Amino acid sequence: MNPAPDAEITSVGQDNFEWVVNAVSEFLVSKAVSDEKPYEEMRWASFLSGPKWVDIRTPKPRKKVTAKE
């Protein structure tokens, strides 16, 4: 879950570095030409909770807590 993994050529070697550059380049180009909506705001909670698109402008209703609970 490292947001900035080490992919320096001296750390991963020439072959792996070339693979990383090609894979990331292809991924970024595919995202740039797709119609997919990007995230409006990046937060760890949205990645860990599961929903793909989180509308941060509309709060979810909260469960009412009673004295008996």
What does this structure look like?
The structure is a single chain. The chain is mostly helical and 69 residues long. The protein is 43% helix and 0% strand. It is built from three helices and no strands. It has helices at 9-12, 14-33, 44-49. The protein starts with 8 loop residues before the first helix and ends in a 20-residue tail after the last helix. The model has no long low-confidence stretch (mean pLDDT 77).
Summed up, what is this model?
The chain is built from 3 helices and no strands. With 69 residues, the protein is mainly alpha-helical.
Distinctive features:
69 residues; mainly alpha; 3 helices
User: How does the helix and strand content classify structurally?
Assistant: mainly alpha
Low-confidence stretches: none
Count of individual beta strands: 0
Q: Name the overall outline.
A: elongated
**Using only CA atoms, what is the Rg?**
20 Å
- Tally of DSSP helical segments: 3
Beta-strand content bin: under 5%
Helix content: 40-55%
The profile of the biggest β sheet is: none
> What pattern of helices and strands is seen along the backbone?
HHH
**Roughly what is the average pLDDT, rounded to an integer?**
77
For the record, give the distance between the C-alpha atoms at the N and C termini, rounded to a whole number. 37 Å
